[in-house]
Amino acid sequence: MNTAPKIYHNSSDEYLIDQLGRIKAKLSDLEDQAELIKDVLITRIGVGAAEGKLFRVVISSASRWTLNTDKVGRSVVRAGLATAETVHRWIRKNSKKSEFMKLNINARKQVKKAA
């Protein structure tokens, strides 16, 4: 069953392919612009919140640790780790910590949605 909107019913495949490509390129450009703006806001505001006329932004900082559990498992079996402190030090040594900033943006509650 074809559920394509009638707006595209009489369009050629060539037109639709090119139109999709143009839309994807615009989306990519908009995503690039959004990332640049986010970077500027993070630099200016740091951790905290700020408001525009229509939207509010909240910036938070977080850390993420990842652990290579395969490596942990092999090493624990091989080394026969005995104390909790030794295990803790080994896990810290073989873990990866990533620092990142997160930016959330939402419409302000007291302002009607932008058209």
How would you describe this protein?
The chain is α+β, with helices and mostly antiparallel strands. 47% of the residues lie in helices and 26% in strands. The protein has a 3-stranded antiparallel β-sheet. A hairpin with a 3-residue loop joins β1 and β2 (55-67). It is flat and about 70 Å long. It starts with 12 loop residues before the first helix and ends in an 8-residue tail after the last strand.
- End-to-end span in angstroms? 34 Å
Question: Roughly what is the average pLDDT, rounded to an integer?
Answer: 82
The strand order across the widest sheet is 1-2-3
Helical content band = 40-55%
Task: Summarize the topology.
Elements: H1 13-45, E1 48-51, E2 55-67, H2 69-79, H3 84-93, E3 95-107
Antiparallel strand pairs: 1-2, 2-3
Entry keywords:
alpha+beta, about 120 residues, about 45% helix, flat, 3-stranded antiparallel sheet, 3 helices, about 25% strand, single chain
